[in-house]
Design goal:
Length: about 525
């Protein structure tokens, strides 16, 4: 007849190793106060043993001594000073452990808190819930291994390490927050946590152990922080639903083999820092991802600071700070697109169009040079392109754009010509020294006009553009002051003049909006809202 109950007499001082292992029908046991130790695997596999009392004489509970038992609750008496490795592993019905308050080895804690870790080896598994106290600084080996009913857990900020196989086989674990105090994740820590859908690894972790997230089949996204330098063998093997990996490490982490084995990397996306994009593209296994793109970040550009990004990157929010000393037109050259809605409240923006020269008195000599531009009253600007900008009020201003691409630094130029003169507008993110500006005769905007540099003391800041003027043979030319004409401004100089009732739609206007009888002299005029150039 199968053994269903047993009483240990006072004459017994020790229950030996495997003494009742596999006694599946054992449901009742009474241990006398003479017993001081319970040996390794003494009651392993007693699946119907759901409750019993450990006497106050017991000092040692051996490794795996109650592994696989049907225990629902347990009291650890004050006499116990040593509990072996995985003593209560796979006790799937275990809901609480209470340690007597006067136990000097294990503080009194409930709901699986009592013996999370002893000599770095965890003792319990199968718990349905756990609230770990802040006195615990590590999750030991196999701490929650096989806790099939564990769905979520809060780890306190005192935890510094997650041991090997700590949550191995927690197949119903949907959510876990790893605190920023954790520095290492052990081998197989989350092995076969099938329902874990995403994981954020904090920026304190430097290494991810072998098979740490192996066969986490529900894992769709992973955040790997900049602090990680090493990822172990098969760390993400078998994560068949992994679609997005965000790796913030600027230095590509070293990896052991099979890190992404059986992961559909060809259809997944790897998100990396813009500065490291090319390095990831040529380093296995990262280079196996079908899409490798830059991580969206929050970025702030400060006017006057050198900008030298060598790759494009995506941003969640991008800000550009600049101080406007007046409300005149200034040069603008930035590495991002601006939407009309981003600037319309605080700024006017105009795009460069052409530069024209005029012989007003028809004596064969250029009397004035005008830089044409057009108001931008909708849509968006183009990155790395010269524009004009004017603050509606002087002072420190910020342009804010959301979900914008921050493009790599490119010092592009645009050219235009008039008669025998070539105008070249070049943007800069590194700035131009006053010596270079003066020596080369470059023009920069000041007080709403373009002036040639007057001394080597006038440096040009980044996020500006400068103008070079030459003849057809490339020789520098001195034009003096260049006026700025912006079409579309309120007032008389818009592209489409307002006609009085009965006025001829073919009427001709000069650039100041004055009606002309006809365009008789060389220059540019407006007719039917279009430019007319008389040479």
């Amino acid at each position: 007849m199968p053994l269903s109950s047993i009483t240990i007499p006072n004459s017994i001082v020790s229950i030996g190793e495997r003494a009742f292992e596999g006694c599946y029908n054992l449901s009742s046991i009474e241990i006398s106060s003479g017993v001081t130790s319970i040996g390794e695997r003494a009651f392993s596999g007693c699946m119907y043993l759901n409750s019993f009392e450990i006497p106050n004489s017991v000092k040692l509970i051996g490794s795996y001594s109650f592994e696989g038992c049907g225990l629902t609750s347990l009291i650890i008496p004050k006499s116990v000073t040593e509990i072996g490795y995985a003593a209560f592993a796979n006790c799937g019905s275990l809901e609480s452990i209470i340690v007597e308050s006067d136990n000097t080895t294990y503080d009194s804690r409930e709901n699986c808190n009592a013996i999370i870790e002893t000599s770095s080896n965890a003792l319990i598994a199968g718990c349905k819930n756990s609230s770990i106290p802040s006195s615990v600084n590590s999750i030991g080996r196999c701490a929650f291994s096989g806790c099939y009913d564990l769905t979520s857990i809060d780890l306190p900020n005192s935890i510094e390490s997650i041991g090997e196989e700590a949550f191995e086989g927690c197949t119903n674990l949907y959510f876990i927050t790893i605190p920023s105090s954790v520095t290492s994740i052990g081998n197989g820590a989350f092995y076969e946590c099938w329902n874990l859908s995403s994981i954020d690894i904090p920026n304190s972790v430097t290494s991810i152990g072998s098979t740490a997230f192996c066969y986490c089949r529900g894992l769709s996204s992973v955040n790997i922080p900049n602090s990680v330098t090493q990822i172990g063998y098969a760390a993400f093997q078998g994560c068949t639903y992994l679609t997005d990996v965000y790796c913030y490490a600027t230095n590509v982490p070293t990896t052991d083999s099979q890190v992404f084995e059986d992961v559909p990397t060809s259809s997944a996306t790897l998100h990396v820092p813009a500065t490291s994009l090319e390095a990831y593209k040529i380093t296995e296994p990262w280079s196996n991802f079908g899409t490798i793109t830059t991580i969206a970040i929050n970025a702030s550009l400060t006017d006057g600071d050198t900008y030298a990004n060598s790759n494009d990157c995506n941003t969640n929010m991008l800000t550009y700070n600049r101080t406007f000393s007046n409300t005149e037109w200034q040069a603008l050259y930035v590495p991002f697109e601006m939407q009309y809605e981003d600037w319309q409240a605080d700024f006017d923006v105009a795009r460069l169009n052409n530069a024209n020269q005029y012989d007003d008195d028809e004596d064969g000599t250029v009397d004035r040079t005008v830089l044409e531009a057009f108001y931008v009253k909708g849509g968006k600007t183009t990155a790395n392109t010269p524009y004009l900008i004017r603050a509606k009020e002087a002072g420190e201003k910020t342009i804010v754009t959301e979900n914008a691409t921050l493009y790599k630094a490119e010092e592009r130029s645009i050219d235009c010509s008039s008669v025998g003169t070539l105008f070249t507008f070049t943007g800069t993110y590194s700035g131009i020294s006053g010596t270079e500006m003066f020596t080369n005769g470059y023009y920069a905007i000041g007080d709403g006009s373009l002036h040639q540099a007057e001394s080597s003391a006038n440096d040009l800041s980044p996020y500006r553009w400068y103008m070079k003027v030459t003849d057809r043979d490339g020789n520098p030319k001195d034009l003096g002051e260049v006026k700025i004409q912006v079409f579309g401004e309120d007032g008389t100089n818009g592209l489409t003049p307002t006609l009085s009732q009965g006025e001829d739609e073919g009427a001709v206007f000069d650039l100041s909006g004055r009606r002309m009888e006809m365009a008789t002299r060389k220059g540019m005029y407006i007719r039917n809202g279009r430019k007319v150039i008389v040479r």
